[in-house]
Amino acid sequence: MINYSREVNNSQIDFMLNHLETFLTNKEYKHQDIHVLIIGLAFKGIPQTNDIRGSNSIDLFNKIKNKVKRVSGFDLALNSKTNIEGLNLVKDFDSLKEIIGSAHAIFIMNNNPNNISNDFLNWIRPQTFISDPWCFFRNFDLVRTHNIYYSNLGKLYFKKK
71 and 64 in contact (C-beta within 8 Å)? Predict the structure, then answer.
């Protein structure tokens, strides 16, 4: 049962990456030209932890790091000594604001509400891909109001051309 649970957990990353592929194809972007932001690097968000062992975020990072132009990561729970080789680790909300504005794709990978500021949606530029398997924004019509590509574990939503 534990092995099956882990297999299902791992397949979720592939599911999210399939949505990213659809976004890239639709926007006619190439992998090597995009900047990806991963929010929530720790294994758990609630209860909050700074432990990255077994984290889906790290698995996602390892799957994409050699395919895309740049990968940044953010998690308020991580201490300043945390280092993940090849990952541009963002340390505070001021820096995060700039990164969000330049990211083509954003993955929200754990359920720590402290990682999402109240004005998060104001920082996102139009036509950004957001993968939100924790459904932080399930009550918003983000596709219409912010002109983004929104993915949860159920479906990918975007404006048709």
Answer: yes
| Closest of 89, 95, 92, 91 to residue 38, by C-alpha | 89
Q: 149 has which bridge partners?
A: 129
* Whether residue 47 has a cis bond before it, omega within 30° of 0: yes
- What does the pLDDT look like over 92-106, one tens digit per residue? 899 999 999 999 999
pLDDT digits (tens, 9 = 90+) for 122-144: 899 999 999 999 988 865 667 77
Q: List, as one string, the DSSP characters of 83-149.
A: --TT-EEE-SHHHHHHHHHH-SEEEE-S--GGGS-TTHHHHPPTT-EEE-TT-TTTTS-HHHHH--E
